[in-house]
Design goal:
Strand content: under 5%
Helix content: 55-70%
Strand order of the largest sheet: 1-2
Oligomer: single chain
Number of strands: 2
Shape: globular
Largest sheet: 2 strands, antiparallel
Radius of gyration: 24 Å
Number of helices: 17
CATH topology: Ammonium transporter fold
Distance between the termini: 94 Å
CATH architecture: Orthogonal Bundle
CATH class: Mainly Alpha
Length: about 450
């Protein structure tokens, strides 16, 4: 196997594992800690089940839809209409798929990789899996578990794969020169927009959940957030598909932008008279991680710092002030995914069009320059048009998929079950009582009924 580089293969599998850890257990733990006690198990279960569903669909047909040969319906060439929008579905379970050289057909020689196709399949799977799990943050605390399962399957199959092919797999926007290094658009903008639409369609949480939105375990939140931060080294460091200088630069840029965004968020809390909270700071951290993702390997260190400052400021203002006006105030986005992923992904993608550096892009094998590097407005134009596509397609597609699922399964949990939470849906809770009275509906110890007093004169 003259094409195999053991070093590149080892790094790619390591990077894939780091990204997988961001979902399981990263987001599982973060969601389990940030929600109220009675929603902790349900939140974790939905993340786990999404991870499993996407893997089965991915190897069954999804990978080829996103990274395979284009569909030819009205033409035999890759330039046909459908050939620019979607790959031909099919399984990747045979020996040639698992042992052969990794390739992305539409990218030609650039798409011939120095590791097996099975490595590429798994690496791209963990990206596909984390996207609906991120979206889940918008609808925690009320979406029906039975509806979540088919929704994840359909959304991943019909929406994620299209965006992945068009932007990463050599489709239309890739051909126009749009840049999305590691998923600012394909993953984060898509999750933010789709989550917002889902939250609007499913409806708000119970009023008491919205009024008393208290995490049940901040230590779990911190652990989950830490796994996200360091797991992002694989998220962005793995996308050059090589263990090369661009991967190293992407990892450093990722951490630099995140640190800056985190500190800017804390500074804005002080500047606006707020106390810097752990949850708020985690939002700043996530904003930095998401914002650098579209351009991690395309900008230099100064660009990474600028993106951290600008994106953190934009998302901070959006989350704290734009959320008070319509339509945002009318939609109960549980964890504010539309801000920390939607707005952050959009900001990062557009800022890539401004700060992309030709020397950094060439290390990735791309010829591109942002506005301040003398590249003019062309890259920024395509960054904007690509973002518009993702926003519109995800909004419409998510609405249609939800309505389709809703014909067969109620999207929203029963009000009675929402009052009880985990016990009603899964039969157990995150901090079960160790007293025999656990069987009572309220879970509150009840004093045993005393035996009746013997009647006077009874033997």
């Amino acid at each position: 196997m003259e094409w195999l580089s053991p070093g590149d293969n080892a790094w790619q599998m390591t990077a894939a594992t780091l990204v997988g850890l961001m979902s399981v257990p990263g987001l599982v733990v973060l969601y389990g800690g940030i929600m109220q006690k009675r929603w902790s198990v349900n939140s974790m279960m939905m993340a786990f089940v999404a991870f499993a569903i996407v893997l089965i669909a991915w190897v069954g047909y999804g990978f080829k839809m996103g990274f395979g040969a284009p569909i030819h319906i009205f033409g035999a060439d890759g330039g046909s209409f459908f050939g620019n929008f979607l790959g031909k579905p099919g399984p990747v379970l045979d020996s040639s798929s698992l042992l052969g050289q990794g390739t992305i057909p539409l990218l030609g020689d650039v798409g011939k990789l120095a590791f097996p196709q099975s490595t590429l399949i798994y690496f791209q799977f963990v990206f596909a899996a984390i996207t609906p799990i991120l979206m889940l943050g918008s609808v925690l605390g009320r979406i029906n578990f039975k509806a979540w399962i088919p929704f994840v399957l359909l959304w991943s199959s019909l929406i994620y794969t299209v965006n992945a092919f068009m932007i990463w797999g050599g489709g239309y926007f890739a051909q126009q020169g749009a840049l999305d290094f590691s998923g600012g658009y394909v993953i984060h903008l898509a999750a933010g927009m789709s989550g917002f639409v889902a939250a609007a369609v499913v409806g708000p949480r119970l009023q008491r959940d919205r009024e008393v939105d208290a995490p049940n375990n901040l230590a779990m939140v911190a652990v989950g957030a830490g796994l996200l931060w360091l797991g992002w080294n694989g998220f962005n460091g793995g996308d050059p598909y090589l263990a090369n200088p661009d991967a190293s630069a992407a990892v450093l840029n990722t951490n630099l932008c995140t640190a800056v965004a985190f500190l800017v968020w804390v500074g804005l809390d002080y500047a606006t008279g707020r106390k810097p909270s752990l949850i708020g700071s985690v939002n700043g951290m996530i904003t930095g991680l998401v914002a650098i993702t579209p351009g991690a390997g395309f900008v230099n260190g100064w660009g990474a710092i600028a993106i951290g400052v600008i994106a953190s400021s934009i998302v901070y203002l959006a989350l704290n002030y734009l959320s008070r006006v319509a339509p945002f105030r009318n939609v109960d986005d549980t964890l504010g995914v539309v801000y920390t992923h939607g707005f952050a992904g959009l900001s990062g993608g557009l800022l890539t069009g401004i700060f992309a550096n030709s020397a950094m892009a060439s290390a990735f094998g791309v010829s591109a320059s942002g506005l301040i590097s003398g590249g003019g407005f062309d890259l920024l134009k395509w960054q904007l048009l690509t973002a518009a596509w993702v926003i519109v397609y995800c909004a419409i597609g998510t609405y249609v998929v939800l309505r389709l699922v809703g014909l067969f399964v109620p999207l929203r949990m029963d009000e009675k079950d929402m009052e009880e939470g985990d016990l009603a849906v899964h039969g157990h809770e995150v901090y079960p009582s160790d007293v025999p009275s656990l069987g009572f509906p309220s879970g509150v110890p009840v004093a045993p009924t005393p035996p009746p007093t013997p009647a006077e004169g009874a033997a």
